[in-house]
Amino acid sequence: MDLVHRLNEAEIAEALAGQAAEERVADCQPCAAEFAAWKGLGGSLRQDLESRADKPAYFWTRQQARIRERLVPRAAARWAAAAIFALILLAVGLIQQGVTPKMEMARTAPAVPAAQVARAESDDDTLLEDIQASLERELPASLAPAAVLVEEMASASKQGKQAKEN
């Protein structure tokens, strides 16, 4: 009895790849038919993929432009970075110039006369006395008119209650 050895899937894959199993495919009729079917399927799959990938030139030009847009930083981002940098430099410059004149003025300011110092001390004492007087009052001076109205309303309501009782 003549045994025919059938190829397994790995051997068919080797034959499709063009390796040595192709000789064995020729010896086996069912293997040759299966090999031809796989080869036809591979060919039609290749044609389908090539036809899908075969795009007109304008398509590929657009794709390249889109990729370049993503890779190149946007102009707005560059302008924003430049504006922030300019603001930082301006702030540093203003801070440095703002501190320097004050220090020079403090060094070059004339001494305060003793009469002004005495007047300032008496103004301070007057202010402290006014604060103490405000703290000792039960009611702030600004609320005094409101307090009079509240007292009048309270006395009117008491008189109204007494009139109802009589």
Give the gist of this structure.
The protein has 166 residues and is an all-alpha fold.
Distance separating the two termini: 140 Å
Estimated helix fraction:
over 70%
Strand share of the residues? under 5%
Mean residue pLDDT: 77
Q: What is the number of beta strands?
A: 0
> What series of H and E elements makes up the topology?
HHHHHHH
The DSSP helix count reads 7
Broad shape: elongated
Low-confidence stretches: none
Radius of gyration: 51 Å
Structural class given helices, strands, pairing?
mainly alpha
| Most strands sheet | none
Question: Care to describe what's here?
Answer:
- It is a single chain.
- With 166 residues, the protein is an all-alpha fold.
- It contains seven helices and no strands.
- The chain is elongated, with a radius of gyration of 51 Å.
- The model has no long low-confidence stretch (mean pLDDT 77).
Core attributes:
166 residues, mainly alpha, 0% strand, elongated
Furnish the topology, listing elements before pairings.
Blueprint lengths: L8 H8 L5 H6 L1 H25 L3 H15 L3 H34 L5 H23 L7 H22 L1
